[in-house]
Design a protein that fits this description.
Helix content: over 70%
Number of helices: 10
Strand content: under 5%
């Protein structure tokens, strides 16, 4: 990562951290982008350069490429199992600060109607990343359909697990909740031996 990229990432994290804090303390609707900019010590233009919409201040993360890479790294097997294992593996949290940050973001996504609606868009983007990773250079429409349907089912189950995890204040095992949610959807073993 170049120095410029590192500086951009640091600025993005600084702005997002202040945004999440203000949204939590004051309220999402009561906090303006100008408030976030002032708290972060940057201009409103800088905030918009990194986060095109107010919702992005909560929803932005770099989850999609990490998830796609984790799916590709899974051994061959049924598609739900590959995607599910990847989602479980990416659920491992780093520091307690990262855990607290994710919990705060999740609580906002659950409680703010505008964020709930936009969260569905982010699930589509994650599904797109999984489709691109698994479908090869010239996939058939049927293959794309199969991968997208499976990815969306897995992501929906993972979302239910994330909501339950937030309800436990992060005390439950997130990977275990994701595994349980996926088992509820697909059973203990996926039915089909999907080719990818």
């Amino acid at each position: 990562m170049s120095l410029r990229d590192r500086q951009r990432a640091e600025t993005r994290l600084l702005v997002q951290t202040h945004a999440i804090r203000l949204f939590t303390e004051i309220g999402y609707d009561a906090t303006t982008v100008a408030d976030v900019a002032a708290a972060a010590g940057v201009s409103a233009m800088t905030v918009y350069r990194h986060f095109p919409t107010k919702e992005d201040l909560v929803l932005y993360d770099e989850y999609d490429p990490v998830t796609a890479s984790a799916v590709l790294g899974q051994p061959p097997g049924p598609l739900p199992l590959r995607i599910g294992r990847a989602l479980e593996s990416t659920a491992a949290l780093g520091s307690s600060r990262e855990k607290a940050f994710l919990l705060a973001r999740l609580r906002l996504m659950i409680s703010v109607p505008a964020l709930r609606a936009r969260h569905l868009d982010s699930q589509y983007a994650t599904a797109d990343a999984i489709v691109a990773a698994l479908s090869g250079s010239s996939p058939s429409p049927d293959e794309v359909f199969q991968v997208r349907a499976t990815a969306m089912a897995c992501l929906g189950a993972a979302h239910v697990a994330l909501v339950r995890w937030a309800e436990t204040d992060g005390e439950a095992d997130l990977a275990g909740l994701i595994r349980h949610a996926l088992t509820s959807v697909f059973g203990s073993q996926p039915h089909r031996q999907n080719r990818t």
